[in-house]
Amino acid sequence: MSSPADDAARRAGAILTIDLGAIAANWRGLRDAGRAGGRPVDCAAVLKADAYGTGLAVVGPRLAVEGCRQFFVAHIDEAIELRRVLPEHPIYVLNGLLAGTESDFVEHGLTPVLNHLGQLNAWRAAAQRFNRPLDAVIHLDTGMNRLGFGPEDAQALVNERGRLRGLRLALFMSHLVASEEPANPINGEQLSRFRSFVKAMPGAPASLANSSGIFLGPDYHFDLMRPGAALYGINPLPGQANPMLPTVTLQARILQVRRVDALQTVGYGGAWRAARPTRVATIGLGYADGYFRALVNHSTVYIAEQPAPVIGRISMDLVTIDVTEVAEAHSQPGDLVEVLGAHLSPDDLADRARTNGYEIMTALGRRYHRVYVEGRGDAAGEEA
Ligand SMILES: Cc1ncc(COP(=O)(O)O)c(C=O)c1O
Question: Which single residue of 17, 105, 279, 376 could bond 22 by disulfide (Cβ 3.0 to 4.6 Å)?
Fold first, then answer.
């Protein structure tokens, strides 16, 4: 008798396999990179956007088992979802405190990242109403000009620490603008602004580094590192060998195979025309699953080690590929082709779609049949 998982896999147009062991190994590698500076540095995990597409409710608890103690998400609803599976750990909400959500934060034991004085005042008022100190993160904007206390608000805090009365400071944090460009002078400028602030405001741990920031060296590590992308295998060192383990494999199913004569077109708009008699396979994913339309005539999938070019426009639920060079035995309806995996990483696919690995990962389709494995929790990650 087949299991429900087997049945679901059989029904699926595409199967996404997520390697929790590899994600855990990547976290250990980053944590150890922090320890290399000789000071105790903690390593959090950023789980926003459904853990970059890999599944927050599964990845969060797995990383907690690994020893991760602090978690960041963007939205309060993400935090509430994570709280259901992580009842004890601090969960920080990066997008801040929206008006009227104070009691949601308190009810679920969540910590807002306070991004300006207005949010700080609202959170202090909540502390008074609930008659107890509430945890808070202060986010200093050191150059992004996006979220966080700007220079004037920050100076107001330094001048008058009493503005924090009633709150328990969990963290001071800032976020780097261009950490993946080690030579960019903005890194050093942000570092020095953050250092001055932390020096003027002692009494709470500090956090600056995202994934690439960790690789800028120990000066950037402070007390807590906040990697997201690198946990999931995105290269934190663009242009260099990726020190992280890959974490996702995506396979799509061949739905139909046909022969197309020379000069016939394939797909919407006739965007691809056969130069020779061609075997065309249609596979079961499309732009509704995060396989971007920008990949028209511009990517490759792999079948039994053999590349098969993507031809024609990407449809909502379908992609067409040229399997003329692939053995017929390996390219029959029902067979699976590799869309992401050993031959093509999310970063590689991103290059072809003219985007970055973050966008590929966070767009990973909700319709994929998902399989979690513990494949690569080996020592390889320790090298990260
Ligand atoms: C404030 C903040 N910290 C940390 C991260 C994690 O960054 P990365 O995914 O580059 O490691 C992000 C993600 O964009 C972020 O917005």
Answer: 376
